[in-house]
Structure formats: C-alpha cells, structure tokens
Amino acid sequence: MKRQRAEAAGRKGELAAELYLRAKGWAVLARRRKTPVGEIDLIVRRARTIAFVEVKWRSRAEDLALAIDDYRLRRVAAAAEAVAHEYAADEEDLRVDVILLAPGRLPHHIVNAWQP
Length: 116
Description:
Elements: H1 2-23, E1 27-35, E2 38-46, E3 49-57, H2 70-87, E4 93-101, E5 108-110
Parallel strand pairs: 3-4
Antiparallel strand pairs: 1-2, 2-3, 4-5
GO molecular function, one term: nucleic acid binding
Protein name: UPF0102 protein N0B51_04155
InterPro entries: Restrct_endonuc-II-like, tRNA_endonuc-like_dom_sf, UPF0102_YraN-like
C-alpha cells in the first residue's frame, strides 16, 4: 500500500513538472522512458536543447535536499546516453536536469545537474 501511494505521488509530481516545463516553453518528447539501464521521467525539447529530466517529489520540502545524489544522476545520465540518438540531432545540446517538488513550494529546476 505504501508503495502504491508513493507511485501515485510520483506520477502527480511528474505531471506537475511537465506542466511547469510546458509553461516555460518546453515541448515534451517522452514520459517515463524506459531504457536497459534505467528510466527517464521526462524528455523535453526547447529550441536546440534536449533535456533528460529527473523529477523528485517529496511530501516535506525539508526532504528535497536528500532527494538527488550522484548515484541517481549517473543512472539518469546513463539512460539518457542510451536513447539520446532517438531524440537529438547533430548540433543540439543535451543535458540532464532535475526538478524538485514539494507541497506549497514552487518547482525548483536544477539546470544541467549532471556534469561528469
């Protein structure tokens, strides 16, 4: 039951992140894209930039500081590398972003969160 609630909250967080990104001019290319090495929550494009977005939802804003770490970012980066060729053409910028969400707070968008 706890896992189902967490899954439902995560999906709501992904929808909130999608709406936020759309309002900022991003087009959604894929949602919950599964790859052999992991899942990418959102893949979005704006102009010549493709962002592979990890979304983290926490019920308490204080918990957001621990929501993302190098291990999770490495997994998203590996997943992005596995499918980037399907979404990006030459000359486009690729990056991994993170959106942190909690009730009562505006989304916190970390641009280019993964830099190996």
